[in-house]
Design brief:
about 300 residues, alpha+beta, nine-stranded mixed β-sheet, four-stranded antiparallel β-sheet, 8 helices, 15 strands, about 20% helix
């Protein structure tokens, strides 16, 4: 007889969080669920990613680089990025180019920072791993009434050049009033300290209101960070603690196939990948469908609206 999966793994694949998992998520602001995807599915998604990286064309590509806004560089905000909400587009790693000549230093498949942002609708393999009963069950466990998937991405963390992501809150970039974003982050390869795994400021969602948001400029083109004028914490949620001057981050090394749930108010980050191994992951974000989502958000809904998780 084949060995059975541990209870938490069985729950992950059927889409129900245990009381212990819910308590951990509510307390820490994130939840690590090993083996949420089986080995075959994980390998299939990884191969699909590699096929996309090998087959996309650079001949008509604007060579848009993804930037997080560090080191006095503007955060990404060109038309190629802002109109990617209903498309699958490829964004280059900043360090894949020669800083003097602008020449691409890496083969294209080793130069991409991320692929986004409509994989969950346009790519069958990623759609099946996003819009399914298991993930809908997790959303129900988190008490979503009308969960909508609004974006999906493959983040590559390429060997030697995969960029650092500074501490941030997902609700800054996917703001609803009140905040409601939850990230579903799935490792397609092992994520380690060496190749840039996530780190979490445990419990920071309970002491960190969303104070600013990434918004379209009201005058002129591009993006800017502005103060949040609406709610800064989720509905029926209280900020319980005073934020320390310096948050302590817990490293989250995980194996391929692991699902990590990330509260939209949680501070998290990842370091640059200086190793010789990539760190491919797939992530999608869910918001409450009946909350206010305004025209200043960078990502605007397609004509059919954001993707429903419930039938």
């Amino acid at each position: 007889m084949a060995p059975s999966n541990p209870p938490d793994e069985q729950e992950a694949r059927t889409g129900t969080l245990t009381p212990e998992q819910l308590q951990s998520y509510k307390g820490d602001g994130y939840l690590i669920i090993p083996n949420a995807l089986d080995t075959s599915t994980t390998a299939s998604l990884l191969q699909e990613t590699r096929d996309m990286l090998s087959s996309f064309s650079v001949e008509d590509h604007p060579m848009t680089k993804f930037s997080t806004g560090e080191n006095n560089k503007d955060h990404i905000g060109d038309d190629y990025f802002l109109t990617s909400g209903d498309k699958i587009r490829f964004f280059f790693e900043d360090d894949a180019f020669d800083s003097t000549t602008g020449a691409l230093l890496k083969p294209k498949q080793h130069a991409i920072n991320k692929i986004g942002h409509y994989l969950h609708a346009l790519n069958p393999a990623f759609r099946d791993s996003t819009l399914n009963s298991a993930n809908a069950g997790i959303a129900r466990s988190l008490e979503f009434r009308d969960p909508r998937v609004l974006q999906s991405m493959i983040i590559c963390k390429q060997p030697e050049i995969g960029g650092r992501v500074p501490p941030h809150q997902d609700s800054t970039f996917l703001y609803t009033n009140p905040p409601s974003a939850v990230g579903f982050w799935i490792a397609l390869e092992d994520a380690t300290a060496e190749n840039g795994c996530l780190s979490f400021a445990k419990g920071s969602h309970r002491r960190s209101p969303v104070k600013s948001r990434f918004a379209r400029k009201q005058h002129g083109e591009g993006m800017e960070f502005v103060d949040v004028e609406g709610a800064r914490i989720p509905q029926d949620f209280e900020v319980e603690e005073k934020a320390p001057e310096d948050e302590v981050y817990t490293m989250g090394e995980v194996k391929a196939g692991t699902l990590v749930l990330i509260h939209g108010n949680l501070l998290h980050k990842s370091e640059k990948n200086l190793s010789g191994k990539s760190r491919f992951i797939y992530t999608f974000h869910v918001i409450e469908g009946d909350y206010e989502y305004d025209e200043r958000n960078w990502l605007q809904p397609p004509k059919t609206g954001f993707s429903k998780m419930y039938p």
